[in-house]
């Protein structure tokens, strides 16, 4: 790891949150930093460990954590899961970083670690790096809009906007337009006190420990939100995205093997004729909502590619994809394809894709924006609500599938987006937003590298 020319580079240490939507942008960032002359070491958990073979230019060092079942269980309460993950990883991360600092480079000099870049959800690792005297940057893998609402959390708590209550769901949130109370960070069914503690610790760690914040977003689509964050923070904020476009990595880091046969299937479909449906790598819906989705797709008459992964239906187990409703495959034969996982970036870039039914995780939202694909939104938890609100009411490039998933409404929304006049207008706005999002240059990344070298 320290051999050859790597000895003479200043080093950046990365630590991603061990979930797919967080690992991918962190590794894209690592590849970009390495391409600009920095040595990069990735400290990582054994749980959901990244594949070193996909990034031979980076060094990978496991921290040898011991996670309780509360962290690794697919059905865990998300807020409690992240609290437990932070508690269990703090000590192993601290020791791994300290060991790296003790390593000797060429000429007997101590390893030259310029800084650490830690996932913003890993508040304990942010704190540990700062306590070891290592300058640390927080990588936010969500939108700037979401982070702005996180910074506002103490004010929102005092004003009674959070925790979210039924009677205030549709109230606009002052200074966070176009967000309503229902669009703030929330996890329905999660322990409310655990969520409050988690959000307070995440925001507090940035303010107490971070020397700067890095965003996987673009000035072209979130300039007002970034400007507001910079006014509030007393440290730099860098918008270096979209990372998946700027990185030379050939494809996203996935924890599941994608079914690449769906690309050949798309090749045989006319332009903009296929609805791509995927709720990401973590979200799960009830069996009733799953069946209504299936019959809504069937009733829409639209051609679709649907990702049905293991664990996507609550209570159905995580070893195999949940069974489709009886008669669904026969009803949709010739115009529907169901896969357990898809190479999403390639799918969204395919000419046959006309729209994307998405949970509005930030990676999925950004990938759709960067391909000019309009969206049908079904947010499930956390930052997805704010992203969905921006898609529908700030950028105007999508519509809601509806809070209640019902087959008639699903069929109507799908047809409206795919073949209706409203869908055509959203498609045009999506192409315009694509130009804004992809107008990124290397200047933001260059500024980040200069800042790292100054630390």
Automatic annotation (TrEMBL):
CDD domains found in the cross-reference section: GT1_Gtf-like
Molecular functions (GO terms): quercetin 3-O-glucosyltransferase activity; quercetin 7-O-glucosyltransferase activity
A UniProt-annotated Pfam family: UDPGT
Alphabetical UniProt keywords: Transferase
Keyword Transferase: yes
SUPFAM superfamilies: UDP-Glycosyltransferase/glycogen phosphorylase
Family: Belongs to the UDP-glycosyltransferase family.
Annotated protein name in UniProt: Glycosyltransferase
